[in-house]
Amino acid sequence: MVRTVVAQGTFDILHPGHVHYLRDAAAMGDELVVIVARGENVTHKQPPILPNSQRVAMIEALEPVDRAILGHPDDIFAPIKELDPDVIALGHDQHHDEDAIQSELHRRGIDCAVNRASAREPEFEGELLSTGLIIDRILEERR
Amino acid sequence: MVRTVVAQGTFDILHPGHVHYLRDAAAMGDELVVIVARGENVTHKQPPILPNSQRVAMIEALEPVDRAILGHPDDIFAPIKELDPDVIALGHDQHHDEDAIQSELHRRGIDCAVNRASAREPEFEGELLSTGLIIDRILEERR
């Protein structure tokens, strides 16, 4: 039996924190499918710079990822129902309530563990481990 | 015999053009090693936003890449001599003179083909296929 893991996020400007999350997620099973948020659904932070298809293409090019798809426009649980994963891997800093997710999965009859990925330890000086930090650096150096 | 291909570049903010180049390069042999330019050696355009180690880590996370290393501080041919590749893959838009490279390789006793990767055909609307275009978009939308 292939154990499918689902990870998800916006994945705008890629950085080693994304890679760490996806490697950690991939290690939770045999196959990693990543759901990439549609720009129009990103409301808890500034909308992404890069278009939907570009973010999907870049995530699919990362070594730990088997497949990337765009999220559903209205129902974030719809692709989960379809993929029927064994594990949902949350990023260490994603503001999701594991219990709330677990009970919604239960309500929809999806039997799936909810795990949280570890944080990446800083590995070298000066690394920029978030899209926001990269954008800030660009605004400082190029404006 | 393992055919080694070397690709090289700055690889600042990653985009699908980079992925296309590296997939094309990987297809020229069995093993792809990527030489990532040190920020201090990037003089023909603005210096990269991201630190050396971060750019190496991100290139190493891409599926077509087997290994990434930082370039030599003074001698761009030094790592080529050490890696002794079968093919050097140039990016479609890299301003290198194939003949000049070939004659320097010859002078140094390196027997290696110099191929040029194809350009990526645009695949979807609104894609930003250069680090410069991504930075311009960030400056427009977030300044």
Count of DSSP strands of chain A: 5
Which structural category do the helix and sheet elements of chain A fall into? alpha/beta
- Shape label of chain A: globular
Strand content of chain A: 15-25%
Q: What are the secondary-structure elements of chain A, in order, as H or E?
A: EHEHEHEHEH
**Unreliable sequence segments of chain A:** none
The quaternary state of the protein chains shown equals homodimer
- Hey, which two chains have the biggest interface? A-B, 32 and 32 residues
Average per-residue pLDDT of chain A, rounded, comes to 95
Radius of gyration of chain A: 15 Å
Taking the sheet with the most strands of chain A, its summary is: 5 strands, parallel
Strands in their spatial order, largest beta sheet of chain A: 3-2-1-4-5
Terminal residue distance of chain A: 52 Å
Helix share, percent of chain A: 25-40%
Query: How many helix segments of chain A?
Result: 5
Quick rundown:
Two copies of one chain form a homodimer. With 143 residues, chain A is an alpha/beta fold.
Written overview of the protein:
- The structure is a homodimer of 143-residue chains.
- With 143 residues, the first copy, chain A, is α/β, with parallel strands linked by helices.
- Chain A contains five helices and five strands; from the N terminus they run E-H-E-H-E-H-E-H-E-H.
- Chain A has a five-stranded parallel sheet with strand order 3-2-1-4-5, with helices on both faces.
- The radius of gyration of chain A is 15 Å and the shape is globular.
- Chains A and B meet through helix 2 and helix 5 of A and helix 2 and helix 5 of B.
